[in-house]
Design a protein that fits this description.
Elements (H helix, E strand, L loop, with lengths): L4 H7 L1 H22 L8 H33 L9 H19 L1 E4 L2 H14 L3 E6 L10 H12 L3 E8 L6 H16 L3 E6 L7 H5 L5 E4 L3 E5 L12 E4 L2 H7 L2 H6 L4 E3 L3 H8 L4
Parallel strand pairs: 2-3, 3-4
Antiparallel strand pairs: 1-7, 2-5, 4-8, 5-6, 6-7
Length: 281
């Protein structure tokens, strides 16, 4: 990396000052040799000046070394004592988080950490939250706390849009009622509800290139998406959270979903939903 002159001077001003002072002393004595009215600097004076500069230089170096010790204390790894399964797993978790913070993305691979992180994400949302859900149940069980956090976000003025991806098993008599009740309930609570049959997603070019999973977008800046091995789960087992601008842009499915023309709104398009579900009017 090219260093600018000003940056070099700022970092090396002590050395530069020593060099300039030496040049000035030598130049002064040369001038004094030819100008009789100018008295030469004595050897003792020159030594005193150089010693004073060297002392200042040494003090500055000591300050820098002390600052480095403080830096090491804060940032460099400390010896890991009292090793146990718990401490080892905790250290591994901390290491993964530190690496993720540098890469602007973190991955979690268990239900508890995933849920805790989703709660922090929705609690930190300021303006918008977009969600795409493959699952239907869980709002009263595994996803209950997250659902309540959604309601808290609405009270703070956060706009919530949720798109249900309709799977074939939703057509069963038991799930039809559950789906319609859930959509009705969430609409009344202030959420904007949308739906699209999973088979219709094949019309979206983006989906053919990038298969969609359970996804959330927070304030248009932070994206979370399901990385669970189990494709459809009531609660996420593994998730990836990214705030890397390029990854968010590449992985964000919502512009593609809502511009596709295949996503419908509830309750505006309720008749199309009930027809797809096979519900008799």
């Amino acid at each position: 990396m090219k260093v600018k002159p000003l940056q070099w001077i700022t970092k090396n001003w002590q050395s530069l000052l020593l060099i300039l002072t030496t040049i000035v002393i030598l130049s002064y004595n040369v001038i004094a040799t030819y100008v009789s009215s100018v008295q030469k600097l004595s050897v003792e004076t020159k030594i005193d000046v150089m010693l004073a500069l060297l002392a200042a230089y040494a003090l500055n170096v000591a300050i820098k070394l002390n600052a480095f010790e403080d830096f090491k204390e804060i940032h460099l790894p400390k010896p890991r004592k009292n090793s146990s399964e718990f401490t080892n797993e905790t250290y591994k978790f901390i290491d993964s988080l530190e690496n993720g913070m540098q890469d602007e993305a973190i991955e979690l691979n268990n239900r508890h950490d995933s849920m805790a992180t989703l709660l922090r994400l929705i609690d930190s949302a300021d303006k918008t939250y977009d969600a795409m859900n493959y699952y239907l149940g869980g709002w009263k069980t595994g996803m209950k706390e997250f659902f309540e956090a959604n309601l808290g976000a609405i009270q703070r003025g956060v706009r919530i849009r949720r798109c249900f991806i309709l799977r074939e098993e939703f057509r069963s008599s038991e799930l039809v009622t559950q789906l319609l009740d859930e959509m009705e309930k969430q609409t009344k609570l202030g959420m904007q509800i949308f739906f699209v049959p999973e088979t219709e997603l094949q019309r979206i070019p983006y989906y053919r290139k990038t298969p969609l999973r359970g996804t959330g977008l927070y304030d248009g800046k932070i994206l979370s998406y399901d990385t669970s091995i189990v494709r459809h789960s009531e609660t996420p087992v593994g998730i990836r959270i990214t705030w890397n601008e390029k990854e968010v842009k590449d992985k964000n499915p919502f512009p593609h979903l809502f511009s596709s023309g295949v996503v419908k709104s509830y309750p505006k398009d309720k008749n199309e939903l009930t027809e797809w579900l096979g519900v008799k009017s």
